Amino acid sequence: MKLSVTGRATAAAVVAAVTLLTTGSIAGAAPARVAAAPDLPVANIKAHLAQLQSIATANGGNRAHGRTGYKASLDYIKAKLDAAGFTTTIQQFTSGGRTGYNLIADWPGGDTGQVVMAGSHLDSVTAGPGINDNGSGSAAVLETALAVSRAQYQPTKHLRFAWWGAEELGMVGSRYYVNSLATGDRSRISGYLNFDMIGSPNPGYFVYDDDPAIEKTFQTYFAGIGVATEIETEGDGRSDHAPFDSAGIPVGGLFSGADYIKTAAQAAKWGGTAGLAFDRCYHASCDTTSNINDTALNRNGDALAYAVWELSF
Fold first, then answer.
1. Which of 49, 65, 87, 190 registers the highest number of CB atoms within 10 A of its CB?
2. Is 167 considered catalytic here?
3. How far apart are CA 61 and CA 144, in angstroms?
4. What are the tens digits of pLDDT across the range 147-184?
5. 63: helix, strand or coil
6. pTM, whole model, 2 decimals?
């Protein structure tokens, strides 16, 4: 989010105060610092969403597992990452008689014994283009990766980004990835950050309450911009962090709400409309580029980048 000068100063002051008092507990973490994460241009994230919408429109209205729209979405993201200097790998699997794909992107450098991952599922349901679920997370993870490249960021830890296939069928792609890892490779992942639906049109600001250090990192960011958060419960265990968590890997993430109803207390805290779902177009054909709240997308995107910078230092 583009903070005002006052907002940026406030955020920096809050982070500085926290870092003087705490150190990261994420596996292998060094003492925390004031983050130098970039402000992600929300226009860039929305441009990626426009591309995903165009892909869906040209491919039967969706980007679902095993459909041409999914593969075209993956090809779009891979091309961006290859041009930015990432080492990309496509992992292939089969589910429901259809071929699925995961896309993994590694940024050169950093300690490969301490890997910080950020990921999102790239597939939609067959009913619609899936722009909030989960183009929003996929686009923000992509823009964060591109920001790493633009900054030529050289973190202490190794950075890895991932886009999962067949999440809508039960986290098939991410489970395949985790199950394919040797035990030693699992232990090298210091943390996995998941972003599934972060631009809901009637948004909330939910933080996963899994690994305490990751949770605290997100809470610190939002406190710095004056946005209250709540613990995420609606999608607990229903997204791609679940296979990582089951394997003993520290996980965390952000969520702006799906088909649960926003309460009056939440509307008073965050704005929006009480009595309506956080996303009335959840798993529906109306989950298009019109189904995005720019403010939520902006804030969550910047929180994503902040966490990647902070936890990989």
1. 65
2. yes
3. 27
4. 999 999 999 999 999 999 999 999 999 999 999 999 99
5. coil
6. 0.90
